[in-house]
């Protein structure tokens, strides 16, 4: 692929800053997981920062972004406060989702980051629905839907692409092809490994970009978004990338060789992009180190904030199961934990 | 007005009232709907608001969720409840969970309509009654209207509510007639059971179409067995108006639940558990259940007839509660 | 498409006989439905006989055939006794499925007709599973899976084609493109209307045939089956055809014009094929009429048989819910109808 | 031997015993299984019999059905029960219905394994306990093993049975140890409840992992409250050994059901309904239920902790049944 030229210095610097922040944030999140400050599953996107920043930076503020359980980076790139993301990982009340969702379920409405989702393939229909809203309301907003190579084997992929093409919805489906669905390599889960071609049978044209190259990813996603927005039709973009870490924290990685990982690590998007900014005189070495220092400081502060934030109080357990109101004032439950929903249990006062 | 027309009127009124309300589903437009519930709406509102979809249940429900999260009020029709299993993931893991798992940042004002029921010899795979599957799910509202008036009032309430609603209609009821308030502002709010018939001897709770069977059985009990049954139609299962049921049982001391679905883990099981928990000392007999048979619905008419509840079984179950006195 | 030459006279005659039998059988089934002898849904394939017979005749006896709720023709073509199919429509004990399944759920194990299924798209995974068995056992059997244009929008389509290609399964997916999914025309439900191309993104090559031409359908299906069998890979065949009747018996058909129906009826496969057999001297007019007479006689007998067959007895209600045995001797039910499954209800003797 | 290893042994033994038994699932081979239940089997039996699949739940279950109909004995692993909703149509409308709707012409000897449960902070969408969804479905067998011995014995029985089986494991139990008969012919047949602890004062029925919680609670009740509880683990919910439960309740006159799933329409509701129907005159208190909270499972540790049953709640529920004496 012809090497893309750099964006303006300020933009280039901001991209490197964001990629660096994501990297340092996720490294720290991994440490916090090891210290049992973070529970559940923790899926890191380390190695995929160029794909994340390049595509998210192609969005307008009003566009919708939706991702998977591997979405810390998407939230951070979209502008969600690092401390709120970290607090969510800690399961604290000040987390973006008040500790209800955890790592797999980030969400930030004001920034139109429409969430991380735990069900593989489950977010494609939602994305098409969001694009339908834009179409219905006649806005110029587009939707960017991020999912993985493994997700392209789910039934929702074909169903959603067909509907999006049939209804000419302004949505870009971005398959982050990191070569594996968990421990299953691309060629072992997909009969056709050129995933960007998979939409053609449903009327969705495909593009491919180098997901290790933030400029190529940005350029390609921007063009895809332009087509979706102006020509009112969906586009499928395949970003070729690699996750340096295991699928989640508990992954012996027996399904791939150290050599393969090393080869990809040699193309670390932070290093290659950072080197280039230095070579092309956008940054001096000290400035580059400064970026790293600032990122670490931000992450330190995020961890401190998460530490200091309180856990959600027990009485908040039932908050937001429903929008309460005239119709749902509470509901029957046999559940001793459900404050206020024990109407009619008078006979069990003694219980 | 027929049940089918009442639903149609509710859709028309709410679409007129609110520009963000729109319909999606298989053959709801050009074909006018498999059961004609959406008849005339495409012509009246156009194909932006009445959208025929491909056969992709999981995705059309999921698109409804996405549209609802971003400001619209989609009403998705699943041609029948039998196909809802294909959309279960979007209904449960997405529609019902999204608000809670994102800490209340977003709401999902989605209505998923679907008719259920046996009686038309549609055989296995096409005769299910699954209100019991959906009532388990926190985050959902579940309606089971049995009259044209409730069909209209509850559907209007469902569309205006900010929670995801599984709205269960019944294929047999579509053709049934009843009075319907034509006041466009009349809504029937969820969580209010209807006492269809007052009585002092036994409480019969009928679900969906079986609320009708229960009333017929009650008339028969009065005429032939001198038993005055109180018939209650919960109207909605989430939220559930247990108060009304308990108040009745505390007077009658006997309770029978009639439903069309499978016996294990059904609505009857749930109500039996709740009633014996809340009104234990008031019960003179076990809470009885009359349910669909524990099998896939057979096609053959005589088998189908005995595989779901009819008046005689309700009468028999009620009389059984008196045998031990 | 170049006109295909006729098969041997005996073969050609048998094809016409079978197509005629299916036509007369379904016409009569429709009449019986009007007389309320048949209940539920009745989906007729009138107009699609060439697609049915052409494809089914390309099968070997040991091959598996699986279809949809529109499958009377597939059962008859496979050799299922017309009287047993009619008895099933009547819901009688002598029906192929003892009256349990009805029109939408035909099945004939000895003939490896693996069933009609009511859930659109539900039979594709089953077909791949049957092909997996052939592969696993190392047989030369292939599987032919019939479904409609509307079904190609279900998630199972993409999931199954990918798996079949990935595992090189001997299965032919045949999409009977009759131009409509119920009342929704092809271009209103599929963004790409060349359905045979829809498998390419999943590694499944496509072929198309004239579904109104029994020879072309047979030729194409045979080649597809050969590839599946010998080259061990799935093939997608699209047969272009048309249903002359409504989707099911209750269908006002407001979604299409009388003209369109008339145009297709002008290509009635029975007429065109019959005419050709006469023109090419395979049949005389009297012989052709004889075929019709015999078909009608067979159908008369089938109706008589169905009439005379008893309804299933009430005691048989619970037959075959389970394979009973050591583990399942019966099971708890609160259900007064469930003979022998009331263990433990002794306290309700009075009930 | 650990629960995980017991399952692994059952698979190995049955695959050795019967050539037609094979495994399909996501990451069960090269990755050795998300929970390592299938560890080593790919190496031992090869990729014809241990098959990694793409992420296509509905289709891999459906392929299992098709393979089972044609002579094989597939054991399909769904990585977790949370993804089973995507396969609901194939499990219910196909696996469970096929034999009946085709008049008994064919059988479907399929096993679908899936682990459930909360406690690892997997949050909403990943912490479900759904035995109550599957127990509703006629045509299915449903197992909920709580010990390594049962995990092995029941899985072997499931694989040998000719009916479709939904085999529900528990994520918490995988690491638990217990004695396991290494006799390759030992199978634990379905429909036989286990009495985990004998007692005279109250019957506690524990489902899946909650059978373990129930035993711990029983020990606490004996030590601190002088209450001798009988603890019953049904082992399978279809078929259900109600006889053993009823016999116990007729002696203890009190019954508490402990489950991890949602309260409405749960296993507890079903058992409460059956027990009060069958042993009404023997009950001195309402059948009590201890269940998971009526909400999507929150991620935050302190909230998750109180959102599913632990010993104190079981103890409290048991003591409550004595308050009215
Ligand atoms: C429906 C469903 N099936 C299985 C899983 C378990 N699972 C979580 S991530 C994953 C792999 C997904 O791979 P891919 O789509 O390539 O995304 P990546 O993890 O590589 O970012 C699997 C199988 C799930 N979460 N949802
Ligand atoms: C999952 C599912 N959704 C909807 C239906 C209702 N339905 C029955 S047939 C049909 C149209 C199918 O069209 P196509 O696949 O083209 O087959 P055809 O009827 O034309 O033979 C629909 C929507 C169904 N049976 N199953
Ligand atoms: Mg991947
Ligand atoms: Mg069609």
Number of helices of chain A: 11
Number of strands of chain B: 12
The residue fraction in helices of chain B comes out at: 25-40%
Ligand inventory reads: thiamine diphosphate, magnesium ion
Quaternary state reads: heterotetramer
Q: Largest beta sheet of chain B, briefly? A: 7 strands, mixed
**Helix-strand pattern of chain B:** HEHEHEHHEHEHEEEHEEHEHEHH
Topology (elements, then pairings):
The complex is a heterotetramer, with two copies of chain A (351 residues) and two copies of chain B (325 residues).
Chain A: H1 9-34, H2 49-56, E1 64-66, H3 72-78, H4 82-89, H5 123-137, E2 143-148, H6 155-166, E3 171-177, E4 180-181, E5 184-185, H7 186-189, E6 206-210, H8 214-230, E7 235-240, H9 258-265, H10 269-279, H11 285-308
Parallel strand pairs in A: 1-2, 2-3, 3-7, 6-7
Antiparallel strand pairs in A: 4-5
Chain B: H1 3-17, E1 21-25, H2 41-45, E2 50-52, H3 57-69, E3 73-77, H4 88-96, H5 98-101, E4 111-116, H6 131-134, E5 141-143, H7 148-160, E6 165-170, E7 194-197, E8 202-206, H8 210-225, E9 229-233, E10 236-238, H9 242-252, E11 255-258, H10 267-278, E12 288-290, H11 301-307, H12 311-320
Parallel strand pairs in B: 1-2, 1-3, 3-4, 4-6, 5-6, 8-9, 8-11, 11-12
Antiparallel strand pairs in B: 5-10, 7-9
Helix pairs in contact in B: 1-7, 3-4, 8-12
Care to give the gist of this entry?
Chain A has helices at residues 9-34, 49-56, 72-78, 82-89, 123-137, 155-166, 186-189, 214-230, 258-265, 269-279, 285-308, and strands at 64-66, 143-148, 171-177, 180-181, 184-185, 206-210, 235-240. Chain A is of the alpha/beta class and 351 residues long.
Report on the architecture of this protein.
The complex is a heterotetramer, with two copies of chain A (351 residues) and two copies of chain B (325 residues). Chain A has 351 residues and is an alpha/beta fold. In chain A, 40% of the residues lie in helices and 9% in strands. Chain A has helices at 9-34, 49-56, 72-78, 82-89, 123-137, 155-166, 186-189, 214-230, 258-265, 269-279, 285-308; strands spanning 64-66, 143-148, 171-177, 180-181, 184-185, 206-210, 235-240. In chain A, the strands form two sheets. A five-stranded parallel beta sheet of chain A has the order 1-2-3-7-6, sandwiched between helices. Chain A starts with 8 loop residues before the first helix and ends in a 43-residue tail after the last helix. Mean pLDDT of chain A is 94; it is low at 338-351. By secondary structure, chain B is an alpha/beta fold. Helix content of chain B is 37%, strand content 16%. Chain B has twelve helices and twelve strands. A seven-stranded mixed beta sheet of chain B has the order 2-1-3-4-6-5-10, sandwiched between helices. Chain B has a five-stranded mixed beta sheet with strand order 7-9-8-11-12, sandwiched between helices. The longest helix of chain B has 16 residues, at 210-225. Chain B is globular, with a radius of gyration of 19 Å. Chain B starts with a helix and ends in a 5-residue tail after the last helix. The mean pLDDT of chain B is 97. Chains in contact: A-B, A-C, A-D, B-C, B-D, C-D. At the A-B interface, α5 and α6 of A face α3, α4, α5, α9 and α10 of B. One thiamine diphosphate sits between chains A (70, 118-120, 147-151, 178, 180-182, 247) and D (26, 55, 57, 79, 83, 86). One thiamine diphosphate (TPP) sits between chains A (70, 118-120, 147-151, 178, 180-182, 247) and D (26, 55, 57, 79, 83, 86).
């Amino acid at each position: 692929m012809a090497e893309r030229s750099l964006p303006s210095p300020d933009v280039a610097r901001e991209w490197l800053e964001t990629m660096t922040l994501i990297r340092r944030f996720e490294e720290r999140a991994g440490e916090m997981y090891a210290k049992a400050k973070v529970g559940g599953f923790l899926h890191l996107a380390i190695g995929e920062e160029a794909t994340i920043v390049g595509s998210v930076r192609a969005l307008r503020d009003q566009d919708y972004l939706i991702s998977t359980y591997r979405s810390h980076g998407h939230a951070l790139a979209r502008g969600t406060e690092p401390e709120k993301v970290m607090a969510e990982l800690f399961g604290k009340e000040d987390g973006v989702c008040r500790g209800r969702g955890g790592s797999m379920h980030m969400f930030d409405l004001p920034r139109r980051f429409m969430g991380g989702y735990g069900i593989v393939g489950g977010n494609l229909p939602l994305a098409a629905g969001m694009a339908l809203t834009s179409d219905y309301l006649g806005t110029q907003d587009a939707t960017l839907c991020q999912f993985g190579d493994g997700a392209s084997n789910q039934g929702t992929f074909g169903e959603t692409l067909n509907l999006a093409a049939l209804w000419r919805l302004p949505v870009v489906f971005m398959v982050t092809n990191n070569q594996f669905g968990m421990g299953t390599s691309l060629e072992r889960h997909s009969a056709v490994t050129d995933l960007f071609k998979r939409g053609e049978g449903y009327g969705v044209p495909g593009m491919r970009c180098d997901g290790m190259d933030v400029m190529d990813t940005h350029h390609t996603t921007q063009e895809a978004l332009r087509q979706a927005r102006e020509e009112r039709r969906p586009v499928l973009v395949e970003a070729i990338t690699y996750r340096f870490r295991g699928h989640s924290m508990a992954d012996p990685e027996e399904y791939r060789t150290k050599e393969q990982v090393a080869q990809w690590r040699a193309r670390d998007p932070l290093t290659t992009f950072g080197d280039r900014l230095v070579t092309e005189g956008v940054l001096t070495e000290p400035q580059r180190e400064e970026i790293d220092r600032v990122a670490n400081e931000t992450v330190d502060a995020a961890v401190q904030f998460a530490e200091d934030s309180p856990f959600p109080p027990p009485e908040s357990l039932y908050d937001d199961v429903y929008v309460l109101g005239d119709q749902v004032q509470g509901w029957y439950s046999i559940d001793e934990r459900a404050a206020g929903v024990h109407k009619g249990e008078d006979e069990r006062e003694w219980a | 007005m027929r049940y089918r027309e009442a639903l149609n009127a509710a859709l028309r009124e709410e679409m007129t009232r609110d520009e963000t309300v729109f319909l999606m589903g298989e053959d709801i437009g050009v074909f006018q709907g498999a059961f004609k519930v959406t008849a005339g709406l495409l012509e009246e509102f156009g194909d932006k608001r009445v959208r025929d979809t491909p056969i992709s249940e999981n995705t059309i429900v999921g698109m409804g969720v996405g549209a609802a999260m971003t400001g619209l009020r989609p009403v998705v029709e699943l041609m029948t409840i039998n196909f809802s299993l294909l959309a279960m993931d979007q209904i449960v893991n997405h529609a019902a969970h999204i608000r809670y798992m994102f800490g209340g940042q977003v709401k999902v004002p989605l209505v998923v309509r679907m008719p259920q029921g046996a009686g038309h010899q549609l055989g296995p795979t096409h005769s299910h009654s699954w209100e019991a599957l959906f009532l388990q799910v926190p985050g959902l509202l579940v309606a089971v209207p049995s009259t044209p008036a409730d069909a209209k009032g509850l559907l209007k309430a469902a569309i205006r509510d900010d929670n995801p609603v599984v709205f269960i209609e019944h294929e047999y009821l579509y053709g049934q007639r009843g009075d319907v308030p034509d006041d466009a502002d009349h809504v029937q709010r969820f969580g209010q059971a209807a006492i269809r018939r007052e009585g002092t001897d036994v409480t019969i709770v009928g679900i969906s179409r079986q609320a009708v069977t229960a009333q017929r059985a009650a008339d028969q009990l009065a005429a032939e067995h001198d038993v005055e049954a109180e018939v209650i139609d919960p109207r909605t299962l989430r939220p559930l108006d247990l108060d009304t049921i308990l108040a009745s049982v505390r007077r009658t001391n006997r309770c029978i639940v009639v439903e069309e679905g499978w016996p294990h883990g059904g609505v009857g099981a749930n109500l039996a558990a709740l009633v014996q928990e809340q009104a234990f000392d008031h019960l003179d007999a076990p809470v009885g259940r009359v349910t669909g048979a524990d099998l896939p619905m057979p096609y053959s008419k005589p088998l189908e007839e005995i595989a779901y509840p009819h008046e005689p079984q309700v009468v028999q179950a009620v009389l059984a509660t008196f045998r031990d006195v």
